Amino acid sequence: KCLLFFLLIHLYYRIFRTDVASVTSWLAPIIWEGTFDATLIDFIYKQQNLSIATTVFALGKYTSFLKDFLESAEQHFFVGFRVHYYLFTDLPEEVPEVKMGENHSLTVRKVPSLNRWQDISMGRMEILEKLIENELAKEADYIFCLDVDTKFYGRWGVETLGHLVGVIHPWFFDAPRDRLTYERRPESQAYIPAGEGDYYFTGAAFGGSLEDVHHLTKTCREQMNIDAANSIEAIWHEESHLNKYFLYNKPSKLLSPEYLWRDINAGAAQIKIIRFSHVAKNNADVRPNP
Ligand code: UD2
């Protein structure tokens, strides 16, 4: 009865977006404000008692982003659902005390320091692969992997769940295909030939079911190892490999750039709400190397 009630409300409440595409050519939904009913979708997913593992890495000076990341996540990220954050850092003593909401918990894992930020960024794939393989099987239903130099400003909830979920990069969501910054050197495993590619996805946020994200992280790790053996590093590191992966393993759901915007102070007509955004950073101040 309750479900019927919500369905009826939903029918009356339907809002359409005509200014953006809300489905891909392979029939995956693209999530924008106005394409879902938060109350209804929360109600449906509540029945399932889901658990969402969420990983974040903060090595070296990137620990300074943790407070805002965690505090804002606790206001907006899967509120009311089970969330287990896995935080990887070389400086556990610098992890701030942040009060977790109901059914939210945080585990800190120490990882070795690395000298190159590129290795830190790319190295995430292998750590995620092993985390899923060794620990998460009975722990979680879904996983999201997020950059730490970010902050939440609005709801990020169950509308984002799916088998394989990518976020459209905020700089390229309305760019023509020839401007997408895929790896263009055939020597790299991340190579995408001119004329191919659908969307350009950010490396700052992706997720899905454990099985799908395990396959994604394992494949990217293997492809990066082949590149390393051939002394080549893809132009945008693991993000280039992620884009190659998504070209041949289509995401089942896409999140609009509301779910990773470029700058809280920047706007665009299509962005009705900023949910999660990159924070401004001076790379020279926070990275261990140029
Ligand atoms: C882009 C991507 C990022 C990654 C990178 C690869 C966006 C918004 N972000 O960001 O996901 O694909 O390109 O070139 O598209 N980290 C540390 N300590 C360090 C360096 C990095 O913990 O010293 C971690 C941290 O979680 C950070 C992530 O690695 O969020 C990615 O590094 P970045 O944010 O500096 O990379 P950026 O901004 O070039």
From TrEMBL:
Family annotation (Gene3D superfamilies): Spore Coat Polysaccharide Biosynthesis Protein SpsA, Chain A
Name used for this protein in its record: Globoside alpha-1,3-N-acetylgalactosaminyltransferase 1, like 4
- InterPro entries reported in the protein's UniProt record: Glyco_trans_6, Nucleotide-diphossugar_trans
Membrane topology, from the record? Single-pass type II membrane protein
Enumerate the subcellular locations listed in this protein's record, separating them with semicolons.
Membrane
* GO BP annotation list: carbohydrate metabolic process
List cofactor names only.
Answer: Mn(2+)
Q: Where is the active site?
A: 239
Signal peptide segment: 1-17
Primary location: membrane
Q: What is the lineage of its organism?
A: Eukaryota, Metazoa, Chordata, Craniata, Vertebrata
So which domain of life are we looking at?
A: Eukaryota
Q: Which residues bind an alpha-L-fucosyl-(1->2)-beta-D-galactosyl derivative?
A: 169, 181, 239
